[in-house]
Amino acid sequence: MAYLTPWRGIRIDATPQGEAPIAIRQAWIGLTLPLLETAPSEPETMIVEIGFRNPAGVLSLLKQRLGFKPPTAIWQAYSVQAASALRLLENHSPQAARWWQRNTPWLFEPAQVLAFNADCCELVFVDRLPANEP
Question: How far is CA 87 from CA 28, 90, 98, in A?
Answer without folding.
Answer: 12, 5, 11
